[in-house]
Write a structure and sequence with these properties.
Shape: globular
Number of strands: 2
Distance between the termini: 63 Å
Mean pLDDT: 89
Number of helices: 13
Largest sheet: 2 strands, antiparallel
Strand order of the largest sheet: 1-2
Length: 369
């Protein structure tokens, strides 16, 4: 019965998205609300960038509708925590999501400075830790296990802002941010279902439901016929915030658990390893070249793969496969290696891959000359 409840959340979300997205396309074309191509962007024709307007409303409608239906007709608890604790978690999530959603809508329509975005992101992150949802363990990373509140709270705020921006920044080609998020949501949803925290699993699958129809519009939609759209900041900020909440909550260690390792934390953050690693690489590259780390450029993972001569869709598929590889590898190693060793291995593999891409870029540039 519970698994049918999770499936219902996914189906309801997908159906609402199928109904709402065409109307967003219609309004965008009637009001000429387009993302105009420039030297930094991959697309060549104006494309609506308001697809993310559908994300938060659809997620909230499907999540609340299915949850209310379940409790009214079934009535059995869906989580091991107290109802008050879960309620506070989700009310805080909704408030923070709405704040970021509104900032994203404004940015998509008239633009918002990155300082203002950061302030709202920090406030939204504080809302997540207010009910007690902060990282209390590093699972042995760098030999650190338990974390006091004075360290865990600011670390959690940093993690929320980091992940939210990572999803926002990786949204550079068709199907990439939404595809990576779909993979992460499937894994996180399964982990929560196995753990018995079904409301969090429902949130993951409800978010997945709205992303699947959007992904098809984004990847296969024809811009010339008015069937293509981007998610914009309203979508990417909402996605990043929800993903950060799901990853962090899964990483919180039960005080009754005597196992010093935290394999769930390893897997949870592995679902976001590609956007998180790419942000670090890009920021270091900008600092090394004495550029503002907050200003956009064309040095993201997908930009580099495009410079090797790969087509846009192949770049998307390649990066999704890289994400699946790291998730699968870390899932296998989570119960066999310590967190520090896994992280070192991931960094080595990521660095080797980037060096390989740099080699192919130089090879292509030399051939062009």
């Amino acid at each position: 019965m519970v698994y049918l409840f999770l499936l219902a959340g996914f189906v309801a979300s997908a159906l609402f998205a199928v109904l709402i997205i065409p109307n967003i396309l219609l309004i965008s074309y009637k009001r000429r609300l387009f993302d105009i191509p420039d030297s930094r962007k991959v697309h060549k024709v104006p494309v609506p960038r308001l697809g993310g307007l559908s994300f938060l409303p659809v997620i909230l409608i499907s999540f609340c509708l299915v949850t209310a239906f379940y409790y009214y007709y079934i009535g059995t608890p869906l989580n091991g925590f107290s109802a008050e604790k879960v309620l506070c978690d989700f009310l805080s999530l909704m408030v923070g999501s709405m704040l970021l959603y509104l900032v994203g809508v404004r940015d998509d329509l008239i633009g918002v400075g990155y300082r203002y975005k950061f302030i709202v992101q920090i406030f939204a992150a504080i809302l997540l830790i207010w009910p007690g949802g902060w990282l209390n363990s590093l699972g042995g990373l760098l030999g650190i296990h338990a974390l006091p509140a004075l360290v865990g709270m600011p670390l959690t705020i940093l993690a929320v802002v980091y992940i939210t921006n990572a999803i926002n920044l990786i949204d550079g080609i068709d199907g990439l941010a939404s595809g990576l998020s779909c993979i992460a949501l499937v894994v996180l949803g399964i982990l929560y279902a196995i753990k018995g925290e079904y409301l969090y699993a429902l949130l993951a699958f409800s978010t997945l439901g709205v992303l699947v129809p959007f992904w098809f519009y984004n990847v296969f939609g024809n811009a010339q016929r008015g069937h293509k759209l981007f998610m914009g900041d309203a979508g990417s900020l909402t996605l990043g915030y929800i993903l950060s909440m799901l990853a962090i909550h899964l990483s919180i260690k039960d005080p009754a658990d005597t196992d010093l390792r935290n394999p769930q934390m390893v897997v949870a953050f592995s679902t976001l390893i590609v956007p998180m690693f790419d942000v670090v690489r890009v920021v270091l590259h900008r600092l090394r070249n004495k550029k503002n780390p907050f200003l956009p450029d064309k040095n993201h993972f997908h930009h580099k793969l495009l410079r090797t001569g790969m087509r846009v869709r192949m770049v998307m598929v390649t990066i999704l496969c890289v994400s699946l590889f790291f998730i699968g590898l870390n899932w296998l190693l989570a119960s066999r290696m310590d967190f520090t060793g896994i992280l070192i291995l991931d960094v080595v593999l990521w660095t080797a891959m980037q060096l390989g891409i740099n080699y192919f870029i130089r090879k292509k540039e030399n051939a062009a000359h």
